[in-house]
Amino acid sequence: GWVKEIGGVEAAMARSDRSLEIIESFVAQNEWIDFLAENPGERSNTSVCLSVDLAPEDVKKMVSLLGEEGVAHDIGAYRDAPAGLRIWCGATVEPSDVELLMPWLKWAFESVKN
After folding, report:
1. What pLDDT shows up at residue 78?
2. Do 51 and 59 meet the contact criterion of CB atoms below 8 Å apart?
3. Most distant CA atoms of the chain, gap in Å
4. pLDDT digits 0-9 by tens, 11-56
5. Buried (b) or exposed (e) across 31-63, using 16+ Cβ within 10 A?
6. Which is nearest to 19 in space by CA: 100, 81, 108?
7. CA-to-CA distance for 114 and 94, rounded, in angstroms?
8. Nearest C-alpha neighbor of 15 from the set 108, 88, 105
9. What's this model's pTM, rounded to 2 decimal places?
C-alpha cells in the first residue's frame, strides 16, 4: 500500500536513484571517498558501498563516530568486504536524509584523519 501511496514502483525506484545521485555528487567532490564498484554500471542504487582512503581501523573509527552521534547505524561494510561504508538507499529511505548524511561523513573522516 505504501508503494502505491508514493506513486508506485517507478516512484520507489526514483527515490533510490535520487539517493545514489546524491552520493555520486558527494564522491565527485571529495578525493578521499570512492565507490567500491569502480564501474558505474555495477553499482547498486540500494546498497551503496564506498571505500575510504583510511586504514581499516580508522574506517571502523568513522563508523563508530557516526553511530555515537546517532547519525548512522550499521553503516560499516560487510565483514567479508574491504573496509568501507555501506549506505542503505532503498525506497524506504528519504533522499533528503541521505543528503543530510553527506556532511557527517566528511566530519567523521576529518575527525579520524586529524
Report:
1. 87
2. no
3. 47
4. 999 999 999 999 999 999 999 999 999 999 999 999 999 999 999 9
5. eebebbeeeeeebebbebbbbbebeeebbebbb
6. 100
7. 31
8. 88
9. 0.93
